[in-house]
Structures are given as C-alpha cells and as structure tokens.
Amino acid sequence: MAETAVRRTHPVGLYYLFFTEMWERFSYYGMRSLLVYYMTKQLMFTQGHSSSIYGLYTGFVYFTPFFGGILADRYLGQRKSVILGAVLMAIGHFLMAVQSLFYPALFFLILGNGAFKPNISTQVGGLYEAGDHRRDRAFSIFYMGINLGAFFSPLICGTLGEKYGWHWGFGAAGVGMLVGLGVYLLGQKHLASDRIMMKAAGEMALQDKPLDKNDKSRIGALVVLMLFTVIFWATYEQQGNTLALWADANTNRMIFGWEMPASWFQSLNPMLIFALIPVINMLWASQAKKDREPSSVKKMGIGCILVGLSFLVMIPPSQAVAGGAKVSMLWLAGCIAILTVGEIYLSPIGLSLVTKLAPPKMVSMLMGMWLLSSFFGNYLSGYIGTFWERMPKEYFFILLSTIAIGAGVGMLLMIKPLKRAMGAGQDGSAVF
Predict the structure, then answer these.
(1) Could you tell me if 179 and 391 are in contact, meaning their C-beta atoms sit under 8 angstroms apart?
(2) What is the number of structural domains in the chain?
(3) 21 contact partners, CB below 8 Å, separation of at least 6
(4) How far apart are CA 349 and CA 50, in angstroms?
(5) What angle separates helix 329-357 from helix 135-153, to the nearest 10 degrees?
(6) CA–CA distance from 412 to each of 227, 311, 316, 339 (Å)?
(7) Residue 124: inside a domain, yes or no?
C-alpha cells in the first residue's frame, strides 16, 4: 500500500535515477576523498602541486558536461550518453589502482563524467509534464541520492584506501560505478523517451522550432547566474581541498584513544544534507503559506552568503594552530554545517531552474553549460588553494569569506534585472 502511494506521488523512474546517481556519486566522492592524500603521501607531490591538480581534475569533470550535453542533444540521446559515461568512469576508477596510470585514469574519469553528468539530471525533469509542480520536490529527492552516495563513499573508499592500500579504495569506487550502471540498465522502461528517441518516432517537430526572444532572454539570464555560481563553487569546494588538509594536519581526531580517519570528515556534509533538507523544505513551505518564501534567485544568493559566513567560524581555531596546537573537530564541523545550509539553498535550486527555463531541444547542453560554473569554480578553487601554504590561515579563511559573501550580495542585487529577463519558466512556473 505504501509503495503504491509513493509511486502515485512520483514516477518510478525517479527512483531508478536516484539510485543510479547515488552509486555514481559514491564512486566520484570515494575517489575524491583519497585524491589529495594519495598525491601528497604516495606520489609525493607538494601541497601546492596537489592542490593545482585537484583543482584541474575537479574542474574538468564539470567542463566536459557541456560537450556531453551537445553529444546527447544532437547525436546519442541522453540514455546512450549516460551508459557511455558510466563505462568510461568505471575504467578510470580501476586505472587509478595502478600508480603509473594516474594521469590516464583522470582522463577517463573526466570524459566519462562529461557524458554522464548533464544527461542523468535532465532525465529527472523529463519525467514531469509542463506545469507539474512536483518537479522541484523531485530534484530535492534526487539531490538526496547524490548525497547518500557522497556520505558513505569516504567511509568505505576512504577507509580502504587509508588503512589497507590505495588500490583497494580506488577499486571500490570502480565497483560502485558498475553497480550504478546496472541499476540504470534495469530501469530503462521506466524513464521518459529522450530527444533522439522522440525524433526517431516523429514527435519532435514542435520542439525543433527556432529560439524566440523569450528563449534567448532566459538563456542569457542563466549565463549571468552561472557567473555568480562560479564563486560559490570556488569556495564550497575547499572542503575537499584545503579543509581536507586542515582535517588531516590541524584537527584533533582522537575519540577515546582511536584516531578517526581524516577522510571521514567528507561524509559530514552529505549526512547533514539528509538531516537538513526536510527541515529547510518545511521552512520554505511555511514561508510559502505566508507568501514569504524566497524566490529561486534569492535562495541562491542566500546560499552564497551562508557559505561565506561558514568560513568565519574557522578564524579562531586558525589563530590557535599558528602556535602548533591541534584544535577540536567541532570547529570544522560547525563550518561544514553552515556551508551545507548554503549548498541546499543554491545547488538543487539551480538544477531545477535549468530544466524549467531551457528550451527542450537544448536542455542537456544548457545543463552542461550550468555545470561549467562548477568547472570554473573548481579550477578557481585549486588556484585559491595554492595560497594555503603562502598566507596565515586566518587570512586565508577571511579571503574565502569575503569572496563568497560578495558573490551572494551581487546575486541579490541582480534579482530585478534578471526577473525582467527570465519571467516564467518553460513549465509556466514563476522563478522569482
């Protein structure tokens, strides 16, 4: 009975996409939880060198989705692109287990993510008809799948890699990707037909119409928002870079005589996602009843500001570690908690916004374009991370805070002009 109720609430295909993305994120974040430590401890790279490579890798996995979106929209379709991407990423994870194949492994992972990432997300939107207001809630459910994989992957891959050998951790990430591919293949009949399939069936004449003035205005507005989200990701992604180094070198991780692996801190953010998304959704529902719920862009601006505020928490412990002491893990946990609230206000809202505003014939490409903000943000994250060794830690966190808060304020100031450009979404819903 309960299962029937769930299926009536959302299409069954949503849950196949949920678990596919969960396992893909397990593989991605499991590998990422080890990457900096592997480079500094096994490959013997300097912290500055490893930070630059980390930024390049995490940046390029969000650069290639733009081309993966074009590939899907014009040639392969979303389904075949997801399958191709999953296979390439599995190969990349298994290659990571061989030290001499480090760079080829990163190359396979970058290409695979480009084919996979934009096309799994757009298929969530494809499950819902125009004007269906379940879409935002569907992306929240999907986002929890992302974070479920991100939660337990450092616990499994991180522990295997740190305690038993790097190849065990990277191998576990590869197995996770294969499981995700299997789930996706099993769920094919429950997914909406992609654009190439519809075109082959003669159903695409309406969707192939030329872009009109409103379409171009919405695309332009998405580009403007993307520029602001670059700053968000540049600061947010420090949790896998400089905050990971902080956890390893400056945090007291002893619990009753047992030292917690530093990589486990990267499970805190997704764990908080589970706890906080229902609370924040209830807050938004309560605000909506009073006609006070923030608009989509306002939520995103608030998210940037919250990320900036999170780094202010790290200033007092930064002054303590200057004397060589290790500090309580509660400082880092507090920083990540505030950062997570900022993420909830921005990231899933952005994904849903793209599917609402994008013309159907360009939805995968524009999702890839939206992910370009993560590319530039991650690359900038790596560059900012090079200052970790070159300036006092408290000044480093002040720098991060200033950048993020400035981006949030800028986004809020752009609400009125963006509102005029965007208007309503493709599905008829207001985005302001």
Answers:
(1) no
(2) 1
(3) 120, 142, 145, 146, 149, 180
(4) 32
(5) 140
(6) 13, 20, 29, 18
(7) yes
Pairing, β 327-328 against β 251-252: parallel
- Among 269, 235, 278, smallest CA distance to 397 is for 235
- Residue 260 main-chain phi, psi, to 5 deg: -70, 135
Radius of gyration of the chain (CA): 21
Separation between Cα atoms, residue 218 and residue 213, nearest integer Å: 9
CATH of residue 370: 1.20.1250.20
Range of the domain at 168: 10-193+212-422
Is residue 207 assigned to a domain?
A: no
Q: Residue 201 domain-assigned?
A: no
Residue 233 in any domain: the answer is: yes
Q: What is the pLDDT along the chain (432 residues), one digit of tens a residue?
A: 334 444 457 888 998 999 999 999 999 988 988 888 889 888 888 878 887 888 788 778 888 998 998 898 888 888 999 999 999 999 999 999 888 899 999 999 999 999 998 899 888 888 877 666 677 778 878 888 888 888 888 889 988 988 888 999 999 999 999 999 999 999 998 887 777 776 666 555 545 567 777 778 888 888 888 899 999 999 998 987 889 888 888 888 888 888 888 878 877 888 898 888 888 888 887 887 888 878 888 889 999 999 999 999 999 999 888 777 788 999 999 999 999 999 999 998 888 788 777 777 788 888 888 888 888 887 788 889 889 888 899 999 999 999 999 999 999 998 888 777 655 555 445 555
How far is C-alpha 126 from the geometric centre of its chain's CA atoms? 20
